[in-house]
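Notes from hallway chat w/ T.B., transcribed later so I don't forget. T.B. wanted the structure written out for a chain they're using in a teaching module, and asked if we could keep both sequence and structure tokens in one place. Agreed to drop them here.
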Amino acid sequence: MNDIERLLAIEEIKQCKARYWRAIDSKDFELLRTVMAKDVVFDISESTHDPVRGQLPLFPAKLEPSRSLEEVIRNANKGMGEDVQSAHMGHIPEITVTSSTSAEAIFPFEDRVLKHGYGAFNGYGYYKDTFEKIDGKWLVKTSKIYRYRVIADFIDR
């Protein structure tokens, strides 16, 4: 792989991750199908856990990773229902292309998740992902969310 091919791979991976966040925030699960491998492993066990204060009671942890695209979509439909809104902001990633068909990446991000009538949180952390080039497209193969901080606001009902 030459330098131009490596740079093109990095840009395609960035675009893939940007579409992932847009798919989640817009609840466009057909778009989500275009950015993840069918056998993706997606671990959100630490996505609502603050290293200082512990697990957010409003958003219980999912301890086992999802092990397929279909499971990710089912869980996203359930967890991102009509009463939930999110806004994810991705930042400058570290991407290492490990071969012509594989890469590793760390994507820093922050997000705001609102559950109407209950509360919200702002989160800060990163995704640790692997990507695979399948049928000419870079797709998320594995993903795990890590948090540095989760700040919650609760609303009395």
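Follow-up for T.B.: The beta strands are 36-43, 49-50, 54-55, 84-90, 94-99, 102-115, 119-134, 137-154. Might be a good example for the class.
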